[in-house]
Write a structure and sequence with these properties.
Length: 312
């Protein structure tokens, strides 16, 4: 079966690898155009393009997915199916080309967490379970009929990065199983129940500000749901302080945002009990465990962390 693969970040690479390992014919890989990265602003390929080139696969990086020339390229490869993993929204002129359809791998148990940031929001909301879903594409984003779902646990201390890495391996397995179902002519797609849908919108910088008035458990989930990126942050002495890991304590008596440091332990008051910060990064410095951070930085008695930028 001929499979055109479309994807961009590292998350998508294991799926492409698994498709190749399973023996499917991949006549074309589609990814995003090279982007400027790093301090030198050099043009760099996406993770998927870099992998595909290394495997000798043909790669297309169209600026516009609606370009008629791109549609003609896709048709010329005579795909049986298109597989999409962490890519852009496909127009109907593209996803309608393969006779066996086009499907997407999504990082949640749809219809829960439709949107751009499903892993982040599952952790932020304190869920103990998430998973992956494959579904056939249609005009409305993340609403197509489900081919497969596979669940996985979220531990109480798991970060976005850890869940992301486990999910991309699970996702690769499900992509191959989905292709085998389609190849056998038995995908058995099931419609989603829109009444059960929940959103997972893209996360912007302002969404990452820590509100110390929230309960400690809410802040703990918020911090790990954004770790290591885009990263939850607060402010101290007009500098941004990113927090990557924390634990909930039963310590009381601290006002929201109030700092207490003793013997290498950093506590911050919340709307309930104190939160213990265990990994952080001061603006202009690298991320480090709190014990190391406190050896080179001293908080004064009575200092506070806050969620506001300095007054303009």
């Amino acid at each position: 079966m001929r499979v055109i693969f479309m994807g961009t970040p590292e998350f998508a690479v294991p799926s492409l690898q698994a498709i190749l390992d399973a023996g499917f014919d991949v006549p074309l890989v589609v990814s995003t155009p090279d982007r400027q990265k790093g301090r030198g602003r050099r043009l760099s390929p996406s993770a998927v393009k870099e992998f595909a080139v290394g495997r000798g696969l043909e790669v297309a990086t169209p600026e516009s997915l609606k370009d008629p020339e791109f549609a003609e390229l896709v048709r010329s490869k005579q795909p049986d199916v298109i597989c999409v993993v962490a890519f852009r929204i496909l127009p109907e002129s593209i996803y309608s080309i393969p006779p066996r359809g086009s499907f997407n791998l999504h990082g949640s148990l749809l219809p829960r967490y439709r949107g751009a940031a499903p892993i982040n929001w599952a952790i932020i909301n304190g869920d103990s379970q998430t998973g992956v879903t494959t579904f056939f594409l249609r005009k409305s984003v993340d609403t197509g009929s489900v081919i497969m779902r596979r669940s996985m646990p979220i531990g109480p201390e798991d970060t976005f990065g850890e869940v992301h890495d486990a999910m991309m391996i699970l996702g690769a397995e499900v992509v191959v199983e989905t292709l085998r179902k389609i190849e056998a002519g038995d995908p058995d797609p099931q419609p989603q129940d829109d009444a059960l849908a929940t959103p997972a919108p893209k996360i912007f910088r302002d969404d990452c500000r820590i509100d110390w008035n929230l309960p400690a458990i809410k802040l703990h989930d918020f911090i790990r749901g954004l770790s290591p990126h885009p990263a939850a942050f607060t402010r101290h002495a007009e500098k941004t302080l990113k927090i990557y890991r924390s634990t909930v304590t039963d310590e009381a008596g601290l006002a929201p945002g109030e700092i207490r440091v003793a013997e290498g332990i950093m506590l911050v008051g919340t709307g309930s009990t104190a939160l213990r910060v265990t990994e952080l990064q001061m603006e202009g410095k690298r991320a480090m465990p709190v014990e190391e951070f406190l050896r080179g930085f001293k908080f004064e008695q009575g200092e506070y962390l806050h969620d506001a930028d300095p007054a303009a």
